[in-house]
Amino acid sequence: MSLDGKVAIVTGSGRGLGLAYAQELARQGAAVVINDIDAQTAERAVTSITDAGGRAAAVVAPVGPTETAVQLVRTAVETYGRLDILVTNAGVLRDKTLWNMSDDDFDTVIGVHLRGTFTCVREAATQMRANQVAGRIICIGSPTGQRGNFGQTNYAAAKAGIVGMVRTWAIELKKAGITVNAVIPVAATAMTATVPYFAAAVEADAAGEAMPAFFRHDLGFGTSDDVAPLLAYLAGDDAADITGQSIGVGGDRLQLWSHPEAVVTAYHDGGWSLEALQAEFPRVTSGSLQSVGESFPPLPEELQR
After folding, report:
1. Crossing angle for the helix pair 116-130 and 153-172, nearest 10 degrees?
2. Is 142 a catalytic residue?
3. Does the annotation mark 233 as catalytic?
4. CB-based contact 251:219 (threshold 8 Å)
C-alpha cells in the first residue's frame, strides 16, 4: 500500500498517539500537516518526519475555532496542492466527578474534542467536495465514549458525540466518495500512565521493552505504534468501501464496535401505562439490562504491584 501523492492533516499530532499517526502516514508516502498548540513541540514532530525522508509542515493553533480549521486546510492546499486525508485527534482532559466539574471544565473539553472535530471535518469535507477528492476522514473516539467512565462526563459526551457525527457524515458524504470512520484506540498514553492497573505495561513501554502478553492480548492494550497502521489502512484505497464504522485497536486486538441496536422489543396493546410498566417491565427486561463502564479482569499475580 502507498499513500504517495496524498496529503493529510493530523490534529493534535505534536506528540503521543497523534504523532504516531502522522509518522505512519508519512512513512506510507503522504505529506502531513502537523498541528499542536506549542511551536517547539510541533517543530520537533515535523523534524522527526523530514529527517526520515518524509514531508511535513506545521500549524501552531488550538483546535476548536473555525479559524484553525481554515488555517489547517489552507496550509495543506497551499503547501502541497491538495487535501486527501483528515485525522481529528486533538484533545484535552479535565477529569472531575459531575458535582465537582465546572462549566469551564465541561466547555473546554467539548470545545476541543467535539467542536474541534466538527469545524475541522466541515472545512476538510468542503475542500474535498469542491475538488472532487474521494477523501478519507478519520475521527478519534475512545472506549469512554462507548461505555462511559467515572469522572469523565465531558470526555464521554464528546467522544460519544464524535461517533454520532461520524455516522451522520458517512451518510452525507457517501455520494462524494468520502469515507468517514471512527477509530477507538487503546494504548499507553499520559492518561493511562497514571492508572495503577496499567503500571507494568506502561513501565515496560517506557523502558523500550515488550508489554506483557496479558495486556497486549487479553486487554488489547499496547503502544501508539500498534494503533497507527489502522489509520494508514483506512486512509488508503483498500478501505474505499469502509465508512460509518467504529473500529477499535490496541495491542494484538482489533475490534469492530456495533451501532446501538434494541436488545429487547415488547408491545402492549393501547400503549404502556404506568401500571403496565410496573407489572411487565421487570419481566420484559430480565437479563437484558445493559452494563456501564469497562470492567477488567484481575491482574495476574506476577503483574501486581
Report:
1. 20
2. yes
3. no
4. yes
Average pLDDT over residues 256-264: 95
Assess whether pLDDT exceeds 70 at residue 1. Answer: no
The DSSP secondary structure of 205-224, one letter per residue, reads HHTT-PPPHIIIIIS--B-H
How is the chain split into domains, by residue range? 7-187+223-257
Query: Cell 437479563, residue?
Result: 287
All three cell numbers of 132, joined, read: 472532487
Q: Is 159 a catalytic residue?
A: yes
Query: Lowest mean pLDDT: which of 68-72, 94-98, 193-197, 290-294?
Result: 193-197
Q: Pick the closest to residue 10 from 52, 44, 46, 47 (CA basis).
A: 46
pLDDT band of 206, cuts 50, 70, 90: confident
Taking the alpha carbons of 45, 51, 52, 57 in that order, is the dihedral positive or negative? positive
Catalytic-role residue among 13, 80, 155, 224? 155
Domain 7-187+223-257 class, CATH top level: alpha beta
Q: Catalytic: which of 13, 21, 80, 159?
A: 159
> Within a 10 A sphere around the Cβ of 171, how many other Cβ atoms?
11
